[in-house]
Each structure stands twice: as C-alpha cells, then as structure tokens.
Amino acid sequence: MEKMPHWADIVLIPLISLVLSALLSALVILAIGENPWTAFKLMVDGALMRSSGWGYTLYYATNFIFTGLAVSVAFHARMFNIGGEGQAMLGGLGVALACLYIPWPHWSLAILGASAGAAIFGAFWALIPAYLQAKRGSHVVITTIMFNFIAAALLNYVLVSLLRPRGSMDPASAKFPESTHLPTFRDMFSTADNILFRGAPANVSFFIALAACVLVWFLIWRTKLGYEIRAFGHSESGAKYAGISPVRITVISMLISGALAGMMAINTTMGESERLVLNFTEGAGFIGIAVALMGRSHPFGVFLAAILFGFLYQGGAELALWTDIPRELIVVIQALVILFTGALDNMVRMPLEKMFLALRKGDA
C-alpha cells in the first residue's frame, strides 16, 4: 500500500517545496534591504501581466521544456544526464549546418531539417557517454559533465575557425537565410490594430516543445520501449530477468535524452538569434535538471515547472532593471527550489507520509 496518494506526490510535495523556497527567498530579499512583496509584484507584472513579458517567459520556458524532458527520460532509466548543456551546444551546430548549407524554400521545411539536425547532433553527443556507461562502466554523471566542457571547446573552435564569416571579429556564424527565419508570436498573433508580444523572442518552436511533451508521455507510458525503460529504472536485475537488455536501454534512453536536449537549439539558434553564437544555451541544460526534479519526470509536470522557471528568468530581469536587487538573486531562488525539490525532498515527504498514514488509521 502506498504511503500517500499519487496526487500528493505529484502536486503537493512540489507545491510545498516551492512555498518553502519562496519564503527563504523572501528572507534573502529582506536581508538586502528590499521589500519581498514589492519584488514579487514587480516580477509578476513584468513576466505575466503584459504580452511582451509572456513572450519572454514562454521563450525561456521553451528551452527548459526540452532540457527538462531530456533529463526526465534519462531519470526513468535510472540515469542522471548532466550533459544537456553540451548536447544542446552540439544541437545548435546541427541547426546551423542545416540552415546554412541546405537551400530551404520555406521555414516550415527548414524547421523539420533543423530539428532533425539538432536531434542527431545532440543524440550523437549523448551516445559516447551512453556507450561508456553500458560497456565500460564509466558513470554517466562524470562523462556527461566532462563532455559539456569538450562541447564548449569544440563549438568555440568551429565558430572561430570554420563558420565565422571572413572579416568578422564576432565568434558567430553567418546570419541564416531569410527562408529559415521562424515566425515569432508577434507575427502569429498580432493584428493591424493590436500589436502583441512586442520585442519578445517567443516563436513557433514553443509548439514543437509542447508536441515533444506529448510524444514523451506517449513513449514512456504507452509503448513497449517506454515500459522497458521504466522497468530498467525500477530494477536492473528484474529487467534482466524479464529479458530486457541493459546495454540497449541505456544507449536508447541516452540517445532520446540527447536528442531532446539538442532540440533546444531550435528555439535559441534558429528562432531567436538566427545564427549560431557562443553561449547560446545560457545554462538551460542545467536548469533542465531542476525542471525534471520539480516536474517529477512527468511531461505535464515538466511543462509547469518550465513555465515557473521561465517566470523566474523574466521576473529576475525585471528586478535587475527596476530595483537594486541583483539578477543573481534568481540563481539563489533556483538553487533553493533545487534544494527543496531534490536534496531535501524527504524533509517534506516524510511528514506528509506520516500525516496520510494517520488519516487512514483514523478512517479505519
């Protein structure tokens, strides 16, 4: 018998963890001499009360959906993929090559080719750690961390030595052709009388991220492969007894995870900057870990957690612009969310389990 209802594990524990992290964040804001309530209202106004704010919030959320799903798929196979940052960097290279060297007639075809390029390059960068884990016993946490640094160095070399236009001092590729430029939310939802999402980088890749949520849900809970991934994650020995190959599941899970992380580059490289630049990932690969933890590795939970972290990113920018609160405070808030949803999960879980057990005994 479960110690608590499933809904409590999915909804109540993350919600309490979020409240606790918010309370501690308020104390930090008080400690630096600012008003927490005023800061919260400013964040809400800047991130949620205007269409431009929503545009930035959803732009950041798109990145976090992809990287959160990537971490979640690996979690289900009992692996901790910390290489989303490097896999996204290689995904950006795949996007750039697809956009620069294939003459696409329209963005609707270009986005398919760029998505394939991003997924293939991201999956390739996850393949090597997966092989080392499956065949050599090298822990995937260590190898994926190391591959983040290798990816950063490789991207720097490619941009400076290979893709940088002649005469340019900027370590970036050439601008992508106009036929590959993605429609922004402003293009999609504005009218002649009402301009929405003014200046916001949110674009059509947000809907690809939503489709990825649905596909991951279908894969994990409605397919044989998804069952094998979950079975392997719950018990490797039991999976072996059932005829499930640990090597196969390890490699396939990491390939899917890397492909999802790589597809983040569609939003940033193809949708926002329209060229490949250094540091375009902006730490989204690491934020995906917090998103997956808070979302309990479920696509719907990942979506909600990504919106929350998108709100924190955009709200943090508003705080830095209009108050003396440094933008780095948002990193503190993110760290507190990770702390309570990950490291201190049992601090919230155990009292709730005791409470629900006591309620059951009282009903009996």
Secondary structure layout:
Layout lengths: L5 H26 L4 H13 L2 H26 L7 H18 L5 H30 L3 H24 L21 H5 L15 H18 L1 H11 L1 H6 L4 H17 L1 H10 L10 H11 L4 H24 L5 H16 L1 H19 L1
Helix pairs in contact: 1-15, 1-16, 2-3, 2-14, 3-8, 3-11, 3-12, 3-13, 3-14, 4-5, 4-6, 4-11, 4-12, 4-13, 5-6, 5-11, 5-12, 8-9, 8-14, 9-11, 13-14, 13-15, 14-15, 15-16
Describe the overall structure.
- By secondary structure, the protein is an all-alpha fold.
- The protein has a domain of 253 residues.
- Helix content is 75%, strand content 0%.
- The chain is built from 16 helices and no strands.
Keywords:
75% helix; mainly alpha; 364 residues
Portion of residues in beta strands equals under 5%
**Shape type:** globular
Given helix and strand content, the structural type is mainly alpha
Poorly predicted residue ranges = none
Q: Total helix count?
A: 16
Helix content: over 70%
Question: What summary fits the major beta sheet?
Answer: none
Brief description of this entry?
The protein contains 16 helices and no strands. The chain has helices spanning 6-31, 36-48, 51-76, 84-101, 107-136, 140-163, 185-189, 205-222, 224-234, 236-241, 246-262, 264-273, 284-294, 299-322, 328-343, 345-363.
